[in-house]
Amino acid sequence: MSREYTHESSPPHPIDRRLSALISSFGYALAGIWYLVRTQRNAQIHVLAAACAVALGATLRIARWEWLALVLVIALVIAAEGMNTAVEAVVDLVTSTRHPLAKIAKDVAAGTVLICAIAAVIVGCIVFIPHLLPILNIEV
User: Fold this and answer.
1) Marked catalytic residue, from 4, 8, 66, 81
2) What is the pLDDT of residue 20?
3) Can 8 be counted among the known catalytic residues?
4) CA-CA distance, 23 to 27, in Å (whole number)?
5) Whole-number pLDDT of residue 120
6) Largest Cα–Cα distance in the chain?
7) Which residues contact 57 (CB under 8 A, 6 or more apart)?
8) Rounded distance, CA 55 to CA 49, Å?
9) Handedness of CA 5, 7, 8, 11 (dihedral sign)
10) Weakly modelled stretches of the chain, pLDDT under 50
11) Cα–Cα distances in Å, from 28 out to 33, 50, 113?
12) Which domains does the chain have, with CATH numbers?
């Protein structure tokens, strides 16, 4: 049975459908971010560390390139944590028993977060130490 459309009940315009799909995809992404921050202890720690880094950057009035580096490593760490959470969820969905491949997937995902976090600490040191040394009266 085909539906007849009147002017008042015409099918959505293709642009309206694409816009609706785009808005929906942002909603799904925000739901994923909210799940990550709400349920994952390590993500909460990373968000807290990021907030501290941003506050310190604002206090020290860091340069644009320093902000760029800071924002990139913050995004990198939180994105890696999100991928780690997604990998863990998929592995848990696929198998409820211990399996060597499941362990490898989870360990590699967690290791990826660690690599990103170490890089973020290094960038933080490069950005903040030169600003903090004069404040602490430390000469190099």
Assistant:
1) 81
2) 85
3) no
4) 6
5) 99
6) 83
7) 66, 67, 70, 127, 128
8) 10
9) positive
10) none
11) 9, 23, 23
12) 41-135 (1.10.287.3610)
3-state secondary structure the chain: CCCCCCCCCCCCCHHHHHHHHHHHHHHHHHHHHHHHHHHCHHHHHHHHHHHHHHHHHHHHCCCHHHHHHHHHHHHHHHHHHHHHHHHHHHHHHHCCCCCHHHHHHHHHHHHHHHHHHHHHHHHHHHHHHHHHHHHCCCCC
The sign of the dihedral angle between the CA atoms of 97, 98, 102, 107 is positive
Read off the tokens for 130: 């030169």
- Sign of the dihedral through C-alpha 26, 22, 83, 119: negative
Question: Could you report how far apart the first and last alpha carbons of the chain are, in Å?
Answer: 82
Q: pLDDT digits over 35-56, tens only?
A: 999 999 999 999 999 999 999 9
